[in-house]
Design brief:
By secondary structure, the protein is α/β, with parallel strands linked by helices. Helix content is about 40%, strand content about 10%. The chain contains ten helices and seven strands. About 10% of the residues have low confidence.
């Protein structure tokens, strides 16, 4: 990422010079923000919003239940870029593709009974996220698709089915595997439509479709059966299935859908995060629990968001030229 950092420093210097003040590049981020002439809208689900405490603290008061955190990648990029872009972040935990496209969403905050109760629940509905983009939008980042696929369903059902197996077999694949093709086809249809709607609303915007990181390691033998800081009682065979038949095809669908839109590019997180799965020592995605007792339900931590920020920033700088 050295080349990216150099480009960012040069752009920061140029911004300071344009404002009439010569400021060393390393201090640009500390300067008062100038009015941005590029509008950026961040859309997506909890993998964009942040959601878990390992991705920072919720910074919006009063809370709207979307759980955007201060170490999520949109917020990191906003701080890195200073006044290069003006950010509107409407990402929201539990959002589906349709919630981005045209359906209002009722945010859930951190209300996951019986595991956790949110004292502010229920929250008022928020508008479809696409309402935040318009003719003046220059860049749209969007990270969504897992909730439309029903990824949370797998994370709930697979440990239940894996209980008492000692980690052997593929009970989750056996019960849910037949449903995966239809789930993936739905993602494909809705993602195509979402990109078309975003392009129609913001015809001059560049859309950066952000994929999903490595969650399951290639070598699932490193995952400890029964460990809630990893995947609990999901069997090794089901972890292999979830990687090969669920997560990797989801990324391929997003990349393929992006390829149908001239104004869209795919931001691939998978390869860069290959050695940072839930079961790796240097993890960028937390397991079901972050020690000592924080519910994280398989979401990126601050290090994972930092990696996404670096890759998205590089793509945004390419847009600037």
């Amino acid at each position: 990422m050295a080349n990216f950092r150099n480009r960012l420093a040069l752009l920061g210097s140029a911004t300071a010079l344009a404002a009439g003040t010569v400021v060393p590049a390393q201090f640009v981020a500390a300067q008062p923000a100038a009015a941005a002439d590029r509008q950026w809208v961040a859309l997506g689900d909890s993998y964009t919003a942040g959601f878990i405490r390992a991705a920072g603290e919720v910074f919006e008061i009063p809370r709207d239940g979307c759980e955007r955190t201060d170490q999520s990648y949109p917020q990191l990029i906003e701080r890195d870029f200073g006044s290069l872009f003006e950010l509107t972040n409407v990402s929201c935990t539990a959002a589906t593709i349709e919630n981005v496209t045209d359906e209002p969403q009722e945010p859930i905050g951190r209300h996951f009974p019986p595991f956790s109760e949110d004292p502010d629940y229920p929250f008022p509905a928020v508008p479809p996220q696409s309402a935040a983009v318009g003719p003046d939008t220059d860049v749209i980042t969007v990270g969504v698709g897992g909730n439309t696929l029903g990824f949370a369903d797998f994370l709930v059902k697979c440990p239940e089915l894996g209980q008492g197996t000692g980690g052997a077999g593929t009970p989750c694949k056996d019960e849910l595997g037949a449903s995966v093709p239809d789930r993936l086809n739905r993602v494909s249809r809705e993602y195509d439509r979402m990109l078309a709607v975003l392009h129609e609303r913001a015809p001059r915007a560049k859309i950066l479709a952000v994929g999903f990181p490595t969650i399951f390691p290639k070598d699932t033998a490193k995952c400890r059966y029964g460990d809630l800081t990893q995947f609990g009682t999901i069997t090794q065979g089901d972890l292999d299935w979830l990687r090969q038949d669920v997560l990797e095809p989801l990324n391929r669908i997003i990349e393929k859908s992006t390829g149908t839109q001239e104004a869209a590019d795919f931001v691939d997180l998978y390869e860069s995060s290959a050695e940072h799965s839930v079961c790796d020592a240097s993890k960028w995605v937390e397991g079901f629990i972050t020690p000592p007792d924080q519910l994280s339900f398989v979401h990126p931590n601050a290090r994972g968001h930092r990696n996404v920020a670096d890759l998205v920033e590089a793509a945004m700088l390419d847009i600037l030229g």
